[in-house]
């Protein structure tokens, strides 16, 4: 593995040149993005440079579905966290990938993010591996709602929670603690009174199989896999590196710190994602 370690802005040119060389050698890329690409848009990531959790793990699917207490905590924190994600804008890394797609370099982008920033940047051929946070589904009748609509319902029902402040966390969450969440009124589906859930794959849930199969089909036809901003600690993303390695497909990564696939990488660029991508042609 070739490694480019850039901890200072002065060496960002070396990182960009290394990435440009990888793209020139492998002009048709499947790209896999993670939370690290959106931090320059103001959305926090999950892990530190050693791939350890920065905060408590996100909500588990089983807990959300089975526990009203968990849902109260989730939606109360979302009153603070969701506006941060909703109002975030694509940064130059998102825009550069959209430009590369238009130039024919990216037949498919797979994202582990649920923020929709790739679409807002103009990217077209995307698989939202973990869903989209701006949509809400009823788990009973499958009715669909916008996240803003559900957010407003919750605000109207919980006047006493409007004044709380907290640090934003990933995926529309917030680090709101030491609050009596039992006082929070969770809105249910107005059609069937079923449980409402963001259209995202929570931890402990499964990524839709058809999305995985479509991604693998495109990967098999690509010149290389390029990972951007992911530690790959979650298997839903790591699986693509595992398959690429089995198929003899080169793997490059632009991310800060350790990844689960370090031993499988052809090229690793440990540098600022935004500074690196905005310098490539």
Summary tags:
alpha/beta; seven-stranded parallel beta sheet; three-stranded antiparallel beta sheet; transferase; protein acetyllysine N-acetyltransferase; DHS-like_NAD/FAD-binding_dom; NAD+ binding
Explain what you see.
This protein is α/β, with parallel strands linked by helices and 281 residues long. It has one domain (2-277): TPP-binding domain (Rossmann fold). 34% of the residues lie in helices and 17% in strands. The chain contains 9 helices and 12 strands. A 7-stranded parallel β-sheet has the order 1-12-11-10-2-3-4, sandwiched between helices. It has a 3-stranded antiparallel β-sheet with strand order 6-5-9. A two-stranded antiparallel sheet has the order 7-8. β7 (168-169) and β8 form a beta hairpin. α3 crosses α6 (147-157). It is elongated. The mean pLDDT is 92.
The average pLDDT is: 92
CATH architecture descriptor text: 3-Layer(aba) Sandwich
Total individual domains = 1
Helix content: 25-40%
Through-space gap between termini: 24 Å
Order of helices and strands: EHEHHHEHEEEHEEEHEHEEH
Strand order of the largest sheet: 1-12-11-10-2-3-4
Short description:
With 281 residues, this protein is α/β, with parallel strands linked by helices. It has helices at residues 12-25, 61-66, 68-87, 92-102, 117-120, 147-157, 209-220, 235-246, 273-277; strands spanning 2-5, 29-33, 108-111, 126-128, 131-138, 144-146, 168-169, 173-174, 196-200, 224-228, 251-254, 267-270.
């Amino acid at each position: 593995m070739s490694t480019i370690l850039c901890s200072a802005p002065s060496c960002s040119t070396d990182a960009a040149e290394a990435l440009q060389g990888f793209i020139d050698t492998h002009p048709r890329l499947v790209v896999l993005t993670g939370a690290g690409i959106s931090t320059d848009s103001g959305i926090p990531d999950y892990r530190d440079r050693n791939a350890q959790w920065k905060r408590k793990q996100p909500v588990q699917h089983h807990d959300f579905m089975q526990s009203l207490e968990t849902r109260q905590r989730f939606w109360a924190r979302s009153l603070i966290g969701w506006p941060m994600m909703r109002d975030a804008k694509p940064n130059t890394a998102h825009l550069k990938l959209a430009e590369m797609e238009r130039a024919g370099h990216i037949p498919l982008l797979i994202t582990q993010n649920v923020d929709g920033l790739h679409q807002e940047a103009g990217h077209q051929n995307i698989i939202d591996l973990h869903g989209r946070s701006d949509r809400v589904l009823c788990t009973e009748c499958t009715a669909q709602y916008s996240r803003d609509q559900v957010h407003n319902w919750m605000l109207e029902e919980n006047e006493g929670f409007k004044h709380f402040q907290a640090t934003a966390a990933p995926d529309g969450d917030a680090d709101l603690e030491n609050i009596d969440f039992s006082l929070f009124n969770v809105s249910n589906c107005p059609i069937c009174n079923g449980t409402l859930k963001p259209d995202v794959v929570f931890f402990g849930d499964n990524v839709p199989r058809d999305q995985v199969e479509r991604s693998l089909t495109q990967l098999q036809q690509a010149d290389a896999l390029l990972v951007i901003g992911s530690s790959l600690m979650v298997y839903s993303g790591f699986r693509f590196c595992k398959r690429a390695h089995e198929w003899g497909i080169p793997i490059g990564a632009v991310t800060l710190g350790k990844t689960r696939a370090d031993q499988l990488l052809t090229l690793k660029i440990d540098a600022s994602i935004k500074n690196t991508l905005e310098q490539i042609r």
